[in-house]
Amino acid sequence: MEDWALIRHLYHSEKLSKRAIATKLGIARDTVTNALTSEGPPKYQRPSVDSAISAVEPKIRALLTQHPTMPATVIAERIGWGGSISWLRERVRAIRPEYAPADPADRLQHDPGQVVQCDLWFPPASIPLGGDQSGAPPVLVMVAAFSRFITATMLPSRVTTDLVAGMWQLLSQDLGAIPHRLWWDNESGIGRRGRLTEPVTAFVGTVATTLIQLKPYDPESKGIVERANQFLETSFMPGRTFRSPDDFNTQLADWLPIANSRVVRRIGGRPIDVVSVDTAAMLSLPPVPPQTAAYSQIRLPRDYYVRVHGNDYSVDPWAIGHLVEVAADLRQVAVTREGRVLAEHERRWSRGLTVTDPLHVKSAARLREKFQQPMPVAAGEDRLMRDLGDYDRAFGVEFPCTASCNDDWVQ
Question: Computed from CA positions of residues 330, 336, 339, 342, in that sequence, does the dihedral angle turn out positive or negative?
Fold first, then answer.
């Protein structure tokens, strides 16, 4: 190829003759002629020969005609393929588009303030959760579609109330406004079978927005947040370690301004510079914040503990046997009765823990000691049991009975 380019350069640029070029390069004159008359550089081409895959290709096409999505491994089994599976996969990949139906993805245009895409991202890390437990809790990622502004926070779980609390935290604190629409996938905590859960319905009604759950198998519709998830995994996670979920959220909050300061080619600018245009077209925050805590009412048992999100939290035993109100948000678990605070605990991210306040244990010991003490007997008080007939006579009730009746009763 180098000789071909040099021959054409000497002939067209240096204006040398064919004989001079052949003499200078030490090649035949016919070689120079062929290089000048050819339309492209020379390349080596092997003559095509029939391969083992070519022999079974009609069988492959017959299977793809009836089952366009059949995996290559299944095709290999059906046709009795004994060669390299890599070669078969390559041939199937080349001819499958002729039979599989096309699934085009439209390019969406997002106006300012209209859409915020939401998704859960599970970081590939083992984070200490407390109680000798570790895991990777979900991270709620919300991206403004017009400005590509990323907001995110780690949540204790993916239950509905935690998702609602996470959405309100990111919208109220990071964006400071409410988009006209929230786009979610088919997350069970948001809704199922086209119906939103009750806490989510109450949330969108309070903030006056619309939540849309996209159809299954349509990841392109929320590709903006999917790319943000990948960006977090490839740019935020490498080289980091975390001591706790709070440490994760602290590092994430410090890194997000850097991420939002990058230049996004699609919008031709930095999200941190464009987000003001996005939020200006959004709705204002509601005057009354939505309910984001999980509320329940239970009767406090004798062991004076309540179970919240898989953990047991102690309560002042004064309320044993009474109905108490339990409220749990992202940070705290509180128990009250008629406005009186009976317990306040920091919410734990682990599961199966027993969280005890030492004051509750002391209060239970005092109540138990008081209960076990014998009742004092007043001076002159008769502790003998009274005859039940005295009550009958006091209320004027008589039950006449003969001697035979008494004999029958004894028998």
Answer: negative
Residue 388 forms part of a structural domain: no
- Structural domain range at position 249: 115-280
Question: How many domains are there within the chain?
Answer: 4
Tokens for 196, please give them.
Answer: 């939103």
Range 249-260 burial, b when 16+ CB lie within 10 A, else e: beebeebbeebb
Mind giving me the DSSP string for 199-211?
A: HHHHHHHHHT-EE
pLDDT in tens, 341-370: 999 999 999 999 999 999 999 999 999 888
Supply the DSSP symbol for 283. B
Run of H or E including 24: helix 18-25
Q: Is 93 in the same domain as 153?
A: no
* pLDDT tens per residue across span 166-221: 999 999 999 999 999 999 998 999 998 778 999 999 999 999 999 999 887 666 67
With CA atoms as reference, report the closest residue to 140 among 166, 116, 165: 166
- The answer to pTM > 0.85 is no
Specify whether 186 is located in the same domain as 310.
Answer: no
When pLDDT is cut at 50, 70 and 90, the band that residue 334 belongs to is very high
Same domain, 263 and 194: yes
- Nearest Cα to Cα of residue 121 among 214, 235, 217, 218: 235
